[in-house]
Amino acid sequence: MDRIINRRDLAFQLYEMLDVEKLSHYPRFKDHDRATYEAVIDAAEKLAIDKFANHAHKSDEQEPQFDGDKVSLIPEVKEAMSAYLEGGFHLAHRDEDEGGMQLPLCISQAVAAIFTGANAATTAYPFLTIAAANLLTAHGDSWQKERFLKPMLEGRFFGTMCLSEPQAGSSLGDIRTKAVANADGSYQISGTKMWISGGDHDLSENIIHLVLAKIPGGPAGVKGISLFIVPKYRLDEQGQTLGSNDVALAGLNHKMGYRGTTNCLLNFGESGACQGFLVGKPHHGLGTMFHMMNEARIGVGLGATMMGYAGYLYSLDYARQRPQGRPVDAKDPEAPQVPIIAHADVRHMLLAQKSYVEGGLSLCLYCAHLLDHAQQSDDPKEKVDLLLLLDFLTPLAKAWPSEFCLEANKLGMQILGGYGYTRDYPLERLYRDNRLNPIHEGTNGIQSLDLLGRKVMADQGRAFHMVMERMGEAIGAAAKYPALEEFVAAMQGAVDLMSRVTMKLVGAAREGKTESFLANSHDYLLMTGHIVMAWMWLRQATSAAAAIEQASGDERAFYAGKLMTARYFFHHELPKTGPQAAFLASLDTTVLDMPDAGF
Amino acid sequence: MDRIINRRDLAFQLYEMLDVEKLSHYPRFKDHDRATYEAVIDAAEKLAIDKFANHAHKSDEQEPQFDGDKVSLIPEVKEAMSAYLEGGFHLAHRDEDEGGMQLPLCISQAVAAIFTGANAATTAYPFLTIAAANLLTAHGDSWQKERFLKPMLEGRFFGTMCLSEPQAGSSLGDIRTKAVANADGSYQISGTKMWISGGDHDLSENIIHLVLAKIPGGPAGVKGISLFIVPKYRLDEQGQTLGSNDVALAGLNHKMGYRGTTNCLLNFGESGACQGFLVGKPHHGLGTMFHMMNEARIGVGLGATMMGYAGYLYSLDYARQRPQGRPVDAKDPEAPQVPIIAHADVRHMLLAQKSYVEGGLSLCLYCAHLLDHAQQSDDPKEKVDLLLLLDFLTPLAKAWPSEFCLEANKLGMQILGGYGYTRDYPLERLYRDNRLNPIHEGTNGIQSLDLLGRKVMADQGRAFHMVMERMGEAIGAAAKYPALEEFVAAMQGAVDLMSRVTMKLVGAAREGKTESFLANSHDYLLMTGHIVMAWMWLRQATSAAAAIEQASGDERAFYAGKLMTARYFFHHELPKTGPQAAFLASLDTTVLDMPDAGF
User: Fold this and answer.
1) What pLDDT, in 10s, does the model give residues A435-462?
2) Could you tell me the fold of the domain covering A7-142?
């Protein structure tokens, strides 16, 4: 793979759609401008191609091995880590006085996205570490920061998130891992954690596990969960690594994709000698762990987008080069063959991919940009509003790309035909890797309950109304361009539809019909996702319409491509919401009425 | 896996929906009845579980190895083959005087389906051999039958189909393999064939390749293709195996799924010593090869269905056993957890799967049953009609299950969550295996062109009108049951829709707008497929409505499940055709208008 993202598109998203340069008005970003952003992105792209994409195939074929004692990875992963840390990319978003680049989130997420597109499995290691470090930054005490965070920022320690257990995945209230207070204020941890990505490896001096556990005597369910730092190796008072902290790798899970990332079953405290340190207050661990949830979920959506994006570009380049067949009305079998990009069905699959991956990128960067504003704003009301809006969009930013950019990979593979089905081409790996995204970080079913059951209802529907308002603003901006007339009308219809259906569902909820209110929540997620995506495409079309008249050559083709892809989305995709809306508004209970024995 | 198919459903399809026992009116099947059919299916199911399902995981993990000299497979494959041949399953459809069971196709296909559901990769070997043998039965001369067919029927020789080449997949008119006549009437074969399933292995004494090649001087394109028998090993006059026939394995393709089936790049005649034997007339090879195409494509659809089916049953059993979470309106975190089948979103995913896999089974068996009638009828007009109808349905029977039963596997995996993503559970393998089906045996894009470009137009739309007629009959039969009223109305609406859209498209074709007529052919395939599937579900609902009043206990639950799944399909799936129809009827040209540089 020598293309991971279309840099022209990324620039369009950042500078034309989001006007990221305006963030320099905030003191935190005052030293940045487009040139500094582009320099970082250039460096990231080069490193991603040289040191990450180079072993994506190999680390899939030669997955991490566990000999019962230690885990070993192919050496390219360590080389990639060293280069990544040396480039300071793990500090992209952090303060300059920590050695960081102090970049806005929308830039640091774009940078992260490039690495994911190149090699999702290898990038999981630093990404988990960054997430754990962010959590300790926000919630650790000064001793914890000195002892654990500092070496993470130095790249010497890596991190993990330990939530699930074999019997508790989506239902975290049912975890059984225990934390019993020691006399010295630390805790004795015991229990088993499942699906721990990066849970063991040979890439760092130590691994800092952030572990959810229950302190005996606390409340039942999620209200009795606390959060602990549990290092793989104990540290002495000087921070030097001592021996084992009784965290044992019970086994590696062997996955369909994402194979280069170790995924572990970990036993804590089998010998009664596993020491943990409470982060934040007892019994408030879930909230602490999920403090950065919006960021994490946007990251999943962006990752899914990028696997789709890399696959789209690969299938596009293939379609331009592969000669096969002739136009449908050609009569002469001896006429030269045409590249398959000339065939309507292939173009269809390319347009669908383009609409999904560029749309997904647009939504995820929009969300990251909201978070930048929310974090930097000094207006408390604006802060609250932006976070409410972001809360609403987050389940969509996680779930929509993980559905549709997976679909993009399926289409990319189809374009390559038999070749696409072989492991000699990257499409089948991207498709396998991407299949994780609808499952982890809250399944898409959970996202749909979060969206409809919580976010829509939150604060008397304020977030929902803010989304409607912003869609209205986009419609107003688009209405200035006669060429966008049909999109404006379709978007207005979609807004009305979303409003009507939502009111109908909320009405059912208010009548206490909780079960039928939520029965088809996944359809609600799909419908809302497509309408939000139409909004993103309307925004893109508006920027393109504004720019195309003055453009020529490649630039003109780029904008024309944006407008045509918007047309594809409005003609082919958005109308799918019609039957979804009708199904939802009918409060259909078929899934509830089906007798268990009838399956 | 200990369930591959719901036998109650299979019996429903065969005896209640299709009334297969009536086939005994034909002389060929006069010795058969439900008892003989069930005995064969029982034996197949037992063998499939004992000798095929047992190594499905292992043969995926330990794929065939090529040491540069020979190919080796895990020993379980050979054991499965021996038991299969000993059971005479490769002769299920053949004459009793050949040692066959003389079963109707709908029964022999159901039997084949059970093996595919158990282990698609291993069953590919006998299935390819059966297909090659069928072709030689129809088109081989008596010497060819004695020399090559007989040992195939004895299970000593296996067969393959060699169509594609590295530069010619969908475009067979561009193959380059050459066949030059020898003085003795045989041909000198030279060229390279790609994607040859079962192209080499250690399971049989010889491999009989059926090879498409061009005789120099013939017409260009597909009209210049001839068909040849090319054995891996030469035979002497007594049929004893001599040495190599200069067919060299250049390499194995390493696929995403279907890993247990060797897939080969074969070089024919590298040393100028590859002998082939012409089958049928020169330059008529493509027609000969595709003589059995309907059967082969129904087989692909049925295989896709069965992978979906096995995955559905696995996820159903899992959902019944896995405790996780509580009802949406439960307040007490200490209440016992419920099995996940209690959650609406899981029920949704189960109903979707059930509607896809039981619908797919219904369509494929319907097609096989049509073929039985077509083959046995002594009324030439009826024969022609049935084959026309079958020609129309075949691209749908191939493509619809390969899209939606793959989707079923995706949903099944989602139900298993993280576990579903690991290689310890069969869902991810089924999903990988099933991903081949939209690609091979004519991609689904090709199927859509076949459907809209050929089958709809064939014989002044006669096939299309026959489908409409049969749908009308099903509506008439359903109208007798008040409980089916809403389905009847919806089906009538779907028939009208399909008719209107098709007329509109045909109108464009008649005006010579070939490009825009075919621009969205894949949407036409999806729309028509869903309407045909609604027809299948209406038929099932009618049978269920007829039987449910007299039924009790498990039987009543079974019929209630059928009726509820029909409701799911009519409420949730069929309405998707609305936007597809509108898009098609608008003769949308977005995919054609997109400038190449705009991608």
Assistant:
1) 999 999 999 999 999 999 999 998 999 9
2) Butyryl-Coa Dehydrogenase, subunit A; domain 1 (1.10.540)
Looking at beta carbons, which residues of chain A come within 8 Å of B579? 575-576, 578-579
The CA distance from B188 to B31, in Å, is 46
End-to-end CA distance of chain A: 45
Matching residue, tokens 């000969």: B288
Check if the beta carbon of residue B175 is closer than 8 Å to that of residue B225.
yes
- Count the neighbouring beta carbons within 10 Å of the beta carbon of residue B272: 10
Tokens of A295: 């960021």
Identify the closest residue of chain A to B255 by CA–CA distance: A422
**B590/B579 Cα distance (integer angstroms):** 16
B520 contacts in chain A (CB < 8 Å): 344, 348
HSE at residue A280, side-chain half, CA atoms within 13 A, is 21
Residue pointed to by tokens 């699930």? A164
User: With an 8 Å Cβ cutoff, are B435 and A431 in contact?
Assistant: yes
Verify whether residue A441 is a known catalytic residue. Answer: yes
Which of B164, B174, B254 shows the shortest C-beta gap to A337?
A: B174
Nearest Cα to B274, choosing from B231, B334, B325?
B231
A324 contacts B168? CB cut-off 8 A: yes
Best residue in A332, A421, A562 to probe B by mutation, most B CBs within 10 Å? Answer: A421
CB B308, CB B408: distance < 8 Å: yes
Which alpha helices (H) appear in A276-379, and where do they start and end?
285-289, 293-321, 344-376
**Paired tokens of A270:** 């089998």
Q: What residue segments make up the domains of chain A, in order of their start?
A: 7-142, 158-282, 444-589
* Per-residue model confidence as pLDDT tens digits over B409-446: 999 999 999 999 999 999 999 999 999 999 999 999 99
**Which pLDDT tens digit goes with each residue over A189-248?**
999 999 999 999 999 999 999 999 999 999 999 999 999 999 999 999 999 999 999 999
Report the residue from A256, A564, A571 with minimal CB separation from B583.
Answer: A571
Interface of B with A in 506-535 (CB under 8 A): 514-515, 518-523
CB distance B99 to B107 below 8 Å: no
Q: Domain A158-282 classified CATH 2.40.110.20? A: yes
Task: Compute how many other C-beta atoms are within 10 angstroms of the C-beta atom of residue A252.
Answer: 17
| A343 shares contact with chain B (CB less than 8 Å) | yes
A7: burial class by Cβ within 10 Å (0-12, 13-18, 19+)?
middle
Q: What backbone torsions phi and psi does residue A399 show, to the nearest 5 degrees?
A: -85, -40
- Three-class SS of residue A270? coil
Contact B457, B506 (CB under 8 A): yes
The helix (H) or strand (E) run that includes residue A265 is strand A263-268
Name the burial class of residue B83, with classes exposed (0-12), middle (13-18) and buried (19+) by CB atoms within 10 angstroms of its CB.
Answer: middle
Helix boundaries (H) for B218-343? 285-289, 293-321
ipTM exceeding cut-off 0.90 for this assembly: yes
Residue B377's Cβ-count burial label (10 Å; 0-12, 13-18, 19+) is middle
What does the alpha-carbon distance between residue B465 and residue B499 come to, in Å, rounded to a whole number? 9
Q: Which residues of chain A lie closer than 8 angstroms to B557, CB-CB?
A: 595, 597-598
Instruction: Tell me how far apart the alpha carbons of residues B297 and B70 are, in angstroms, rounded to a whole number.
Output: 31
What is the C-alpha radius of gyration for chain A, rounded to an integer number of angstroms? 25
Strands (E), B81-231: 157-162, 178-181, 187-197, 206-214, 225-231
Find where tokens 């059919």 sit: B37
> Distances from the Cα of A423 to the Cαs of B199, B247, B256, B426, in angstroms?
19, 25, 6, 20
pLDDT at B97: 94
A108: exposed, middle or buried (C-beta count within 10 Å: 0-12, 13-18, 19+)?
Answer: buried
Answer whether B571 sits within 8 Å of A564, measured CB to CB: no
Backbone phi, psi, residue B339, to 5°: -65, 145
